[in-house]
Design a protein that fits this description.
Elements (H helix, E strand, L loop, with lengths): L7 H6 L2 H10 L6 H6 L7 H6 L1 H17 L1 H4 L17 H18 L4 H9 L2 H6 L1 H8 L2
Helix pairs in contact: 5-7, 7-10
């Protein structure tokens, strides 16, 4: 199993497109039934190795995980040749990695830039509380 297999799944499920899809089904409570309905891409190992987006998604996910807690996840760093000095230390840098991952997941789902703009318009709280993050997502 390539290391790229290990990190994208949480980012696929925790991405804005997956969040938007889940909001279309869920009224109040989340259950595994709803989560099982989410369309999660299931690439083969060959697909993962052939698509640079998976490598970027995996590395960004690892960097963000290590930024949250290097001590707990340091043993994962060698899998993608990440050094302690590579880990983001500012909120802006972490937002840039998150935005890049959301853009990658958007591409993997086949969502157009216009559809992403519509999707973002449904996240009113994010637009109010995190306008700088929304601006990063709107950059092409």
């Amino acid at each position: 199993m390539p290391p790229q297999d290990l990190f994208p799944i949480p980012w696929l499920v925790n991405s804005l497109p997956a969040d938007w899809l889940a909001r279309q089904m869920i009224q109040v409570n989340v259950s595994q039934t709803y989560l099982n309905r989410l369309p999660i891409p299931q690439p083969s190992d060959a697909d993962i190795l052939a698509n640079a987006d998976y490598a970027t998604l995996a590395k960004n996910a690892l960097l963000l995980t290590l930024a949250a807690s290097w001590a707990d996840f340091a043993e994962l760093a060698p899998l993608l040749d990440v050094k302690n000095q590579d880990v983001p230390t500012t909120a802006k840098t972490m937002d840039m990695l998150r935005a890049e991952n959301d853009k990658i997941v958007t591409r993997l789902y086949g969502i157009t830039f216009a559809a992403l703009a519509h999707l973002l318009s449904s996240f009113k709280g994010m637009a109010t509380k995190r306008p700088e993050y929304v601006a990063l997502l709107q950059e092409t």
